[in-house]
Design a protein that fits this description.
2 copies of one chain form a homodimer. In chain A, β1 and β2 form a beta hairpin. In chain A, 28% of the residues lie in helices and 32% in strands. By secondary structure, the first copy, chain A, is an alpha+beta fold. In chain A, the strands form 4 sheets. In chain A, strands 6-5-3-4-7 form a 5-stranded antiparallel beta sheet, with no helix packed on it. Chain A has a two-stranded antiparallel sheet with strand order 1-2. The interface between A and B is large, with 143 and 143 residues.
């Protein structure tokens, strides 16, 4: 079997993919990434994240030319004005996007041409938790269901394997399934005097 | 102390907020919500989620008049064309948005007028995990740091308490910190014949 590493498959340049894997194997520091977001509250449930800078492959990225902006909101029944998807819905997007990208990359590496990848996600929540009414309910989803529909030029078993492998490799699936340590710090101030107290601020 | 329940504080109608809490206490079924997203792969790391329908407060929502669309992508160094924030960045947005909304709602309920809520988030990742190079690294972030800057008309201690309470009540903070059971199923088909096999599809 001859490797045609320069083939673009499923929109992924597999030549670059395999070269990237080789480069990281030889210089593991290239694998260190830091992703970032900044968020500004606007009013009520309306806030907005700006995403652009990240560190990776040994340097601060300089290739992104625009900020990505993501709006958040809540529907009226949850006291908002529907200014954007709510945060729990945004998490479903992150999960769908990551599983899909992982699946497409794995398919590209395995030479499986895909023609369709769609998914629907559902998360069940009893808002008595998040609203502070009852400690018997967690704040977040009790469970999340993801259902893919995948079409590609490979036997059904091979297409199903892509789904399994995507779960084994997806960053967001890992985080949502297993959790991540999150540290929250804050500086606070009164608006009138502008004095900031760096109370509980993390070092570095 | 007289409650002025009809006051709009921090953009939150606290009259509606307290009425909502009372309604749920009397009729707990109103607390059952289901949030949803659907995602379509476009090419490579580019995929798009559509968010609109949800179930809550005893019925399918009919108030949202437009679909929310969220684009995903990867930067070139991760083999994409920068068509949107990457999924891990989208997760940071979800986390920032949820903590912020929780904090603002808690402040409204506690009669703390806020003038500024901003946050920056960082997540550290060694992509040897997600790229399948080494099992010594997890796929997702090793840790996430959130730093808030909050200004409001209350003593520093009270503003710090809002940060603590937001963590105790945020749906996405709960999910990202502790994880959620995620079930992934798939139907697959070959593009030529269109036959779908409901392999491993979940019931219901």
């Amino acid at each position: 079997m001859t490797m045609s590493n320069d083939a673009v498959r499923n929109g992924v340049d597999t030549g670059v993919l395999f070269a990237t894997l080789d480069a990281i194997k030889q210089q593991p520091d290239l694998a260190r990434f830091q992703f970032r977001a900044s968020n500004v509250w606007l009013s009520g449930a309306h806030n907005r994240s700006t995403i652009r800078q990240f560190y990776g492959a040994g340097q601060e990225d300089a290739t992104r030319t625009v900020d990505f902006k993501l709006e958040a909101g809540e529907p009226a029944v949850l006291l908002g004005k529907d200014t954007g998807p709510n945060p729990a819905e945004a998490l479903l997007h992150a999960l769908a996007a990551c599983l899909t990208t992982s699946l497409v990359y794995v398919a590209a590496a395995r030479r499986v041409p895909l023609t369709r990848v769609e998914s629907t996600l559902e998360g069940d929540m009893d808002v008595r938790g998040a609203l502070g009414i009852s400690d018997a309910y967690r704040n977040g989803f009790e469970r999340v269901r993801v259902n893919f529909h995948i079409e590609g030029e490979a036997p059904a078993e091979r297409l199903q394997e892509l789904v399994n492998r995507a779960q084994q490799r997806s960053a967001v699936f890992d985080m949502v399934s297993h959790g991540v340590p999150v540290t929250v710090t804050a500086s606070v101030a009164q608006p009138s005097n502008g004095v900031t107290t760096a109370h509980d601020r993390a070092g570095g």
